[in-house]
């Protein structure tokens, strides 16, 4: 099997195993809260977990990689693979001992079918050739399964139902997602909430004891109710996110493939596959179920997903068994499905491992770092407030609203002293709840879940969470041409045959009969497509790749009877189309034992191998310089008209030169010299409508679009001009326009030097694409790359964001990608860029909003506690503020849809500080305003509000209620400011975000209810209309204040640089503390 060592497929797997990806370009080992966007080392993942300050680990780490479960998953995989290998080894040992002497039980009928499911499972699992032979080989097995090897099953509803009833469906039992009650239980795990519940219970007991059950339960009961409300709302939010992720995971697993049913190829979901189906397999496909090979050409399968061994296994008559979950590494073939779902080894493996072990994203980890830093500050402040309040209380410096000292040593009862201390502890713990932004890292998950759901509607399926946010940093997109920039709706519009241009194109009457016969023979046999002719004589149905379909449709117009032509000769050997050689070939044996070898591929490459051509009189003439120049000019003219040029040629071969041994035949290289040119066709693939606008949008956003295509350089140039990738003919010179072979011939240093200048690369191989991606990344670019073929896998893996095509993409390409573009449209790629930037922008909005609340609440309570021994915002009020800030605020701001404004900015630098100078300016202005106004109200509120003559206790309650009400209204109004941190119009597009409007409305209604009707719970009193107007005015001033603030210029140097020292010292202390025994 060593001949596969150089295959691109193997290269992809080695890269995954060895980590040859150049992530070290961005690596920063000194930053604990930094992980690379792909393939982060386990040690790096462990390090940030050890350094983080976390109050509720089960919730905080829910959407990160579960390192323990991942290890358990790998152990399970190893056990199952070892089990499979043991069975296989036992069978091989038994075969080595000789025949089974009739040990195989003849087929046992089951329902309408001539064989039982158990017999099929044993045969496939054990790779038992003896059993297959006993059942009559593939032909006999197909009869037992009532399948026609050419036409497949009937495929009507009754047939499919009968097969599912007898043999099962192609699904496997999955572990159920966590129920709502599990999320509720996890939300309880927060240490601060547990302390608050304990304090609430203690306060409840003491209150009932001292004041009786009618009045004494309010303090403790209100805190308990507030905590329960926080827990329930948190659990509901988390549960909704979980459901979204489950739906997206289901979409990822739903592979679509072609099967042959009723003589025609139809596309079905992998879940709809049944035993007896005939499935065509091509390079890059996933084997969808267990089965046996019907026929194959150079078919090689990578079975490492099942066996753990990295060898590529060739499949043929000696080893016809195919295992579900494996990938086709090379060649093509058709298989007969024998087992599906839980009856396959892949199904058993999938059913036994945990579905999802999670994944953390770089932004999530960075936010954990921010939360840790803010949390350490908040924790310090809370401890300070606790110490100050306890000292003041027990030294007799704390007075009640009536001016009476609350604690007198030796006179105050123990229960009163404990009750007072509990209230102080409750306030301090609640400050911790507000100060430690536990919901900050989870806001990433919320916005990612929202974005991923919306991206599905925009035809983009996200396979890897971090790709969403990385796309916002993309500085360049390396795009394929065919199907991405073009429609992938190909038609033959020009053709040259018989030494001249054909006109009319669709008629064979003016072409010589031998030429037409050979041309049709080559097209019909050298294809992966098929032609289905309905019995009623309706229009034929052509399937296959767009290029294959275009050529087959042209051949049908020339009079091709697809089935008849294919039945006239037998295929000896196939050389599948190769993106390195840009051509594919087939050797066929005619009824008179002649052997023809047909080639089809890139026009100038096939033409270079031609030494003769067939003229209009069926005569073979030498390909002299004049004729060679004629054909080259024809290719150039067609390519300049943005046509894809394909040449069709053939040659004869001496039957004696063909290996007779099957193993040697699989390694036989088809002769590719001394070809006879039959035709050159020009295939039109129009540009997608709107692609020029999409390219322009990217360029305005600072994202350079580069076209990397296997097509002729002139074709690539014409399409690039049409799409706007090249501005004019003046741009179409090297190195803007370069051929793949020229680029790969350069040294590493030279490639890095010119990579940024390249706009179009023509006649590129997948390896050229990989080299370009590596060169661009070395220059510091964040690279997104599109790909659809198996050979694109290394480039998709190496790029920062790999974008696979959903329609034309192979399963290997999709597995190597981060995002699948479901409609293969470049405009959808641009939408992904918008969503990537939106994720980052929404998180920044939420950070600005949350930190403003953090700073204001902390300063107000600290200053009040130190100066007067009392705090204006009590535990229940702070918990309500925390709910607005954490859950409702995240829902409102983290789900803002993307705007056009995002595409007028430069890409977000991946190491750019999360809190920009603009955000610092905005939050400090708002926090300073809130703190100033509310502290003035705290210390001078009674005189300002004319409450000097009121009862002292009532006046204090009115003042504190007004402070609480104004503070909440400030946050509601500041949510609008946070929507547009750098724009003057904060109301722009607000009507499009119904969730934001709904959350603001709900918050307002609940605030009114709390003040007017829940005074006992929140320790508030009803406010008259004047105080409501004062609250609204105080909050409304934040809007013009924000407007004026945005006129203040900010320095270039990020403020975060000044905090990096203490921040890193904090994380080092935490890491050392957590590692200490």
Automatic annotation (TrEMBL):
Composition bias, Basic and acidic residues: 11-24
Catalytic activity: Ca(2+)(in) + ATP + H2O = Ca(2+)(out) + ADP + phosphate + H(+)
Localization per record: Endomembrane system; Membrane
PROSITE patterns membership: ATPASE_E1_E2
Membrane topology term: Multi-pass membrane protein
Domain of life of the source: Eukaryota
EC number: 7.2.2.10
A single GO cellular-component term on record: plasma membrane
Cation-transporting P-type ATPase N-terminal domain boundaries: 134-208
Segments crossing the lipid bilayer: 183-208, 220-239, 370-394, 424-450, 846-866, 918-937, 995-1015, 1027-1048
Major place of residence: membrane
Keyword Metal-binding: yes
Keywords: ATP-binding, Calcium, Calcium transport, Calmodulin-binding, Ion transport, Magnesium, Membrane, Metal-binding, Nucleotide-binding, Translocase, Transmembrane, Transmembrane helix, Transport
Record function comment: Catalyzes the hydrolysis of ATP coupled with the transport of calcium.
Family according to the record: Belongs to the cation transport ATPase (P-type) (TC 3.A.3) family. Type IIB subfamily.
UniProt protein name: Calcium-transporting ATPase
Naturally occurring in which organism (per UniProt): Punica granatum (Pomegranate)
Lineage, broadest ranks: Eukaryota, Viridiplantae, Streptophyta, Embryophyta, Tracheophyta
